[in-house]
Amino acid sequence: MKRKYVTMKDIANALDISVNTVSRAFNNKDGISSETKKKIIKKAEEMGYLWNSTAAFLRTRETKTVGVIIDESTNPFFWEVLYGIESSAKKHGYSVILMVFESDLAEEHKALKTLLERRVDGILISPLDFNGEHLENLSKRGFPFLILGRKIDELDTDCIYSDEEKGGYIAAEKLIKDGCKHLIMFNSNADTNTAKSREIGFKKAMADYNINEENYKVYKVFSADDLITLIPKMIENGEFFDGIFCYNDIMAYVAMKVLQEKKLKIPEDVEVIGVDNTRFSNFVYPSLTSVNIQKYKMGYEAFNMLYSRMKGRRKKTKEIVLDVELVVRSSTKP
Asked: Hey, what domains does the chain have and what are their CATH numbers?
């Protein structure tokens, strides 16, 4: 059955006035009394009128919507980033459409295509990496978009991300200063600047503190679930470690659970550090030491940057690097 929507003509007929008068009321234009405007708005609410964004787009070439594309719907890191985006978008009168592609490149392309078909005014995307022509084509067309949470060296476009190298460094430095002698980094196997930079920071700390290569190791895993089998195997193979740095908090939560199941005490036997400082890090046991990412600020400033681009207020590419800091909790020594 074809869905029937209430139109401005329906409201005009119900009040015996012109469609032009109804339109003036909705667009807050002159030439209509406040009393008439109130009657129109009240009748529209009674009849269940919904604003026709498609018709508005044909007139203004704007939909007042932006798209957000992320690759991990279950990671609480993105919840706080999205909250920042939504807060800034509302302030400017925009709505947000969220698309999730779950680390699948084909789905990322599909999400982008869907948003463009919806005629969004701009896009915020946290891509897998520079992995095709879809982002380059957007850039060449001058379509407003921003890379969220990471940097892609091959692409000259707006981006906002954290100082990931510093994050890897200060996490490793904490473990070293706490007296850990055999260090492990569980990194993401995704070919992203984020993973690479955290590993660079981790290894730089090893070099600065003269930690021999035989005393640290980097494992690259697809997901946090991989640690459920990997850590027990490491223990069974006699691999000794007393400090772990994880790519994100989700990995750290899993690592701590597996260590506890193996009767290892945290932090007495093994210290654990994550990245993101999500809200749950306060509530796991022991509470997790984590590299804080300014998640809300990232989202809020990302939309502000996109907004200025959409409005043509800025032509030059802009890059923002947010500082990070270590939040020490009970999974490491005080």
From this structure: 8-51 (1.10.260), 63-162+295-323 (3.40.50.2300), 164-293 (3.40.50.2300)
3-state helix, strand, coil in the chain (%, to 5): 45, 15, 35
Q: CA-CA distance, 293 to 283, in Å (whole number)?
A: 18
Q: How far apart are CA 316 and CA 101, in angstroms?
A: 30
E-strand stretches of the chain: 65-70, 95-100, 122-125, 145-148, 159-162, 183-188, 216-221, 243-246, 271-276, 289-292, 319-322, 325-327
* Tens place of pLDDT per residue across the chain (334 aa): 445 678 889 999 999 999 999 988 887 788 899 999 999 999 988 888 876 665 555 455 678 999 999 987 678 899 999 999 999 999 999 999 999 987 777 888 899 999 988 889 999 999 876 555 778 888 888 899 999 998 888 888 999 999 999 999 999 999 999 999 999 999 999 888 899 999 999 999 999 999 999 999 999 999 999 999 999 999 999 999 999 999 999 999 999 999 999 999 999 999 999 999 999 999 999 999 999 999 999 999 999 999 999 998 877 899 999 999 999 999 999 9
- SS3 of residue 23 by DSSP: helix
Q: Which residues make beta-bridge pairs with 325?
A: 292
CA 276 to chain centre: 11
CB 81 within 8 A of CB 298: yes
Cα separation, 302 vs 319, in Å, equals 10
Distance CA 162, CA 74 (A): 20
Tokens of 271: 């210290």
